[in-house]
Amino acid sequence: MVKKGLIVAFSMFALVSIGFASGDKSISEEELGLRKTSIHDESNVKPVEFSYSKDAPGTSKRIERAYMNAPPMIPHSVDGLLPITRENNQCLSCHMPEVAKSMGATPIPPSHFINFRPDTKMKDGKVIKEGKVVGEDIKNTSDIKLAKVKKLNGLYQGRFNCSQCHAPQANVKPLVENSFTPDFKDDKLKGKSNLVDVINEGVDIE
Fold it and tell me: pLDDT tens digits for 150-181?
């Protein structure tokens, strides 16, 4: 009976032999990455020249979402708008729902006015949620269910930094072509978010 080890060794030898016979060759260091340069020396490496949109807010063409409920990209110039802070957020002057339509801007969706985080605390080994003890002798709160959705009168401050999810687009040619085509349940969702309505889809919250 032929041992399994001998079969594996013979198979590997056969594959290597076929590779040499077919003229396969090793890949050089310069061919490994997308930059096509040495991986050991970056002295002559220069970043690709690029620039962001110079269109002023309100004059640019909206960018279609990459997928349903994806954070929309920023199509206009952000010169003078960054950095965003709690005290200075100029995005709100155009994107708040009550003014967005008149400004020709995408309104901030309802999900940004909701606190989805549980009001959960730990004290003396007890987990307290919304003022009630929901567990004892627990070392962490990761298994505690989310609190009830809390709709706020203003923007939830956990989302004040718009540039964490939304970014301007540079006019550079992609090194790898993107052939992904998004599917939307409704064509209207190409320019609109319905995340609040579907946030629990496929999730058993009981």
Answer: 788 899 999 999 999 999 988 888 888 889 98
Strand bridging mode 120-123 / 150-151: unpaired
**Half-sphere exposure of residue 38: CA atoms within 13 angstroms, side-chain side:** 5
The four Cα atoms 84, 88, 192, 51 give a dihedral, to 10 degrees, of -40
Helix (H) or strand (E) holding 132: strand 132-136
What do you get for the CA distance between the two ends of the chain, in Å? Answer: 57
**pLDDT at residue 13 tops 70:** no
Which pTM was predicted? 0.68
Fold category of 48-108+155-173 in CATH: Flavocytochrome C3; Chain A, domain 2 (1.10.1130)
Cβ atoms of residues 125 and 137 within 8 Å? yes
